Amino acid sequence: MGRWQPGARERLVLAAVDLFAEQGYDATTVVQIAERAGVTRSTFFRHFPDKRELLVAGQETMSRLLAEGVAAAPPEATPLEAVTAGLLRASTAFGEMSREIAPRLSAIIAANVELEEREALKSAGLAAALTDSLRERGVDESTAALAAELGVLAFKRGFAEWSAGDRRDDIGPRIIAALHALRAAAAALG
Amino acid sequence: MGRWQPGARERLVLAAVDLFAEQGYDATTVVQIAERAGVTRSTFFRHFPDKRELLVAGQETMSRLLAEGVAAAPPEATPLEAVTAGLLRASTAFGEMSREIAPRLSAIIAANVELEEREALKSAGLAAALTDSLRERGVDESTAALAAELGVLAFKRGFAEWSAGDRRDDIGPRIIAALHALRAAAAALG
Hints:
The first copy, chain A, is mainly alpha-helical and about 190 residues long. Chain A has helices spanning about 10-25, 30-35, 40-45, 50-55, 60-70, 80-90, 95-110, 115-135, 140-165, 170-190. In chain A, helix 7 (about 95-110) crosses helix 9 and helix 8 packs across helix 9. The first copy, chain A, starts with 7 loop residues before the first helix and ends with a helix.
């Protein structure tokens, strides 16, 4: 991994999470975040439209990575194998910084209905991206929707376990383990 | 069914959906909604905290009905049978008015990110209610989460088909058919 040198975007996220945790989300302004990050207000707005989007800014990247991974899976891959490929591709976006801020980020989101709503729509967006990319492989609608939901559930559980753990492992295997557990549960539904 | 006589709450919802469709969500005020419904502003606020909540006001009722149905399923019911019982109980909340306003409501929500977010959190809340009620039956975590997602997907699909159809059938069978399709898909995931 080497030493990690955050750029302006990462410094803004870290500063925002610190400030939200210290003084609350509502009380924190864009100016304060920029100041704490050591950048100007206009640098903030080059990266994020507002303080709320800063918290879910990774969504587009993640949807893209999920879709790319699914598309790149071999033609003979089953829907769940394609989802696995998407999840593994998306997991490359999660490094030390994601893990470091995750517990505070969850607490901030849980304390604010507006942020919970944004987060819920983000999950729905990830499921939709996965569903669409499976449909493009010719997977039928029910199977695509189901496999996508399994993928999103597996991602959430894998992420939660990974960010709660103190080992410096990769997130990918955690997500795949969660997906296996869900697949086993699906097979047992009868 | 007999002739349906809407009370103040239903008139407020109908008036709001009309106004949102006619002039947009943002341009519509609580005062306009109350006026169109023939009630006072304070009657509005006795029923809803604001115009946004009016659109998702059925969520608590639905979560309660889902949980009640799951809890009332016989002890030997499988997780999906318990979900079926919950969905059938919840489907009793959907009558002619729900069907009448559904297409406009979907269009209004799709046109407004703030409403989409609220709707996404509502779905997450229904899944959480189903998961919790399955956990209380002793269902393990993965199976409960999965069965709950299947239930919410089935509800959404059944509702969409039912509200797009022009026959005056009940919503329950549509939801159950969607759940069966998802269960078949789950079994085929391998």
